[in-house]
């Protein structure tokens, strides 16, 4: 169970890979992107 072990979280971090022990963190969608603030072409100013 060291840095080079392929099946541990520390080994995945060391190798720079992902897997069951180290899942990827998904980016959260911001509320502004969902609403489309200041991007609606129908609004006239």
From TrEMBL:
Pfam families: Thx
Keywords (A to Z) from UniProt: Ribonucleoprotein, Ribosomal protein
Coiled-coil segments on the chain, per record: none
Compositionally biased intervals (Basic and acidic residues): 30-45
Biased composition (Basic residues): 1-13
Region entry Disordered, spans: 1-45
InterPro entries given in the database record: Ribosomal_bTHX, Ribosomal_bTHX/bTHXc/bTHXm
GO CC terms of this entry: ribosome
Domain of life: Bacteria
Family affiliation: Belongs to the bacterial ribosomal protein bTHX family.
Protein name: 30S ribosomal protein THX
Lineage, uppermost ranks: Bacteria, Pseudomonadati, Bacteroidota, Flavobacteriia, Flavobacteriales
């Amino acid at each position: 169970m060291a840095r080079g072990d392929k099946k541990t979280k520390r080994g995945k971090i060391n190798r720079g890979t992902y897997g069951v022990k180290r899942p990827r963190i998904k980016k959260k969608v911001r509320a502004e992107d969902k609403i489309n603030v200041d991007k609606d072409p129908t609004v006239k100013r």
